[in-house]
Specification:
The protein is an alpha/beta fold. It has 13 helices and 22 strands. Strands 1, 2, 3, 4, 5, 6 and 17 form a seven-stranded mixed beta sheet that branches. A five-stranded parallel beta sheet has the order 8-15-9-10-11. The protein has a five-stranded antiparallel beta sheet with strand order 18-19-22-21-20, with helices on both faces. The site of adenosine monophosphate has 17 residues, from helix 6 and strand 12. The site of flavin-adenine dinucleotide has 35 residues, from strand 2, helix 2, helix 3, strand 4 and helix 8.
Length: 475
């Protein structure tokens, strides 16, 4: 007889585990099945985000930013820090320890909430039955009133450069390197490529980023992208645009990457190549042929606005469905689905999802870019405030970058906020809240911001949108 649950969640990443916890909070009987296996063979909840994505990358970015600041900023503070040395093994041990405690935390949260956590692989059969294959190969079956699919994503492999996990590596490999490569090639100048490139550049590698598009950070506001390109160049991160990678060959402990740019065929030699060209939805062995759940042409599980798959009481959330591949987007969808299952109201505001790139300076935005507003023919106003004019930023030796606020000329509604500078990922929260509450530029102008703080730059950018900034010249 199959075990019966109100809700079975397949996948315990940042989309699946919040769905499971919220469903349990709603008084439902819940199981969450997760197939994650670490390189040492160990099991863990948390998915890509906790094990091989957001958290380990931020741990290394933090460590290496401290190193970079010691090397480049301490002298300005009058602190002599000669002989700063790196012990990569300690740095990596810290990263692994953070991951271990965070993933272990999910198991504790499950226990406290009454969620049955199961390590193994789930497969949706017809009639909302879920087959579970445990890591030792034993099979069992669960029956569910509702199933939530949260199987996540996997790194995209380039056909011409299959991963060998030694020379041609993915983002997970790149987080766990035991030695600093002399020369590193990063394919893809997106969020993951820039973060990983920054980590290893700061640790001393010579890093070349090859990006197929002609525009740098095409997804971001181009004024922000221009400033980011300048800052990265200053840090020695070499970014080659319009560089389409065509192949790679490993020999004698090095790898030669072939690519084509406007001037013709090129070659680049490196110790390692990180392929960071995006991620694809992961649905391998997830669906029995008669499950009824459909994939779209790009392999995402087809869902409507409310994450319904079209099969009664089968839902899908996170990276395996359309929308930005971000942990917080998946979490919101997971919680919303669990509330819908319990008959409660839920809404995910897809128009107000913040994006953050955790480089130094950080890059963060929410809402529309200036180029999107132009393309849509929206009448907008723009206010820009440089961190160089913010006292706290200067005190922090963090005068690089700016806040840019875009608002409707007709209604004053905030349409987008774009930040490049220290703590941009934290500062964007205020802009996100403002947009969620449909605030106007005037609302931000009339909100008192503590002095001196970085957040004052957002206040001043709102004032600058009406040419009323106090601490910078209105142009
Ligand atoms: P996942 O986290 O991929 O989790 C899915 C889980 O389901 C996995 O544990 C998987 O093993 C399991 N699973 C799959 N199939 C089955 C099955 N059949 N049965 C049982 N279990 C199954 N996002 C951010 O928002 N901020 C960041 O800073 C950030 N940094 C990143 C850095 C890197 C290097 C990478 C690679 C990603 C980063 N991301 C970041 C993206 C983020 O990790 C993903 O958006 C997020 O993990 C998606 O959550 P998810 O739950 O949908 O999928
Ligand atoms: P993201 O989607 O943020 O992970 O970024 C992936 C980046 O990789 C995008 O900017 C793509 O343009 C880039 N990209 C994809 N394929 C290639 C390729 N073959 N060579 C170089 N860059 C690529």
């Amino acid at each position: 007889m199959a075990d019966a649950f109100d809700v079975v969640v397949i996948g315990g990443g940042p989309a699946g585990y919040p769905a499971a916890i919220r469903a349990a909070q709603n008084g439902l009987k819940v199981a969450c099945i997760d197939a994650w296996k670490n390189r040492d063979g160990g099991t863990a909840f948390g998915g890509t985000c906790l094990n091989a994505g957001c958290i380990p990358s931020k741990a290394l970015l933090e460590s290496t930013e401290l190193l970079h600041r010691a090397q480049t900023e301490f002298a300005a503070h009058g602190i002599a820090a000669s002989g700063v040395a790196v012990d990569l093994a300690v740095m990596q041990k810290r990263r692994a320890g953070i991951v271990r405690s965070m993933t272990g935390g999910i198991a504790s949260l499950f226990k406290a909430a009454g969620v049955t956590g199961i390590f193994g692989r789930g497969r949706l059969l017809a009639g909302r039955r879920v087959e579970v294959t445990s890591h030792d190969g034993a099979k069992s079956e669960l029956a569910a009133r509702h199933v939530v699919l949260a199987s996540g994503s996997a790194p995209t492999e380039l056909k011409s450069l299959p991963f060998d996990h030694q020379y041609i590596i993915d983002s997970w490999d790149a987080l766990e390197l035991a030695a600093v490569p002399n020369k590193l090639c990063v394919i893809g100048g997106g969020v993951i490529g820039l973060e990983l490139g920054s980590v290893w550049r700061r640790l001393g590698a010579e890093v070349v980023v090859l990006e197929a598009l002609e525009d740098f950070l095409a997804i971001a506001d181009q004024q922000l992208a221009g400033e980011a390109a300048r800052q990265f160049k200053r840090q020695g991160l070499e970014i080659r645009l319009g560089a389409k990678v065509t192949g790679a060959a490993a020999a004698n402990g090095a790898v030669t990457v072939s690519y084509a740019d406007r001037t013709g065929a090129q070659r680049l030699s490196a110790d390692k190549v990180i392929v960071a060209v995006g991620r694809r939805p992961y649905t391998t062995n997830l669906l029995a042929p008669d499950s009824g759940v459909a994939l779209d042409e790009r392999g995402f599980i087809r869902v409507d606005e409310q994450c319904r798959t079209g099969v009664e009481n089968v839902w899908a959330v996170g990276d395996c469905v359309r929308g930005p591949m971000l942990a917080h987007k998946g979490k919101e969808e997971g919680m919303a689905v669990a509330d819908r299952i319990a008959g409660r109201y839920a809404h995910v505001n897809y128009a107000v999802i913040p994006s953050v790139i955790y480089t130094a300076p950080e890059i963060a935005w929410v809402g529309q870019t200036e180029q999107q507003l132009k393309a849509a023919g929206t009448d907008y106003k723009s206010g820009v405030f440089p961190f160089a004019a913010a006292g706290r930023a200067r005190a922090m030796e963090a005068g690089a970058g700016f806040v840019k606020l875009l608002a409707s000329r007709a209604t004053d509604a905030i349409l987008g906020v774009h930040i490049i500078g220290a703590m941009a990922g934290e500062l964007i929260a205020e802009a996100t809240l403002a947009m969620e509450f449909q605030a106007s530029a005037e609302d931000l102008q009339r909100t008192i911001h503590a002095h001196p703080t970085l957040a004052e730059a957002l206040h001043e950018a709102a004032l600058a949108a009406d040419r009323r900034a106090i601490d910078s010249i209105n142009r």
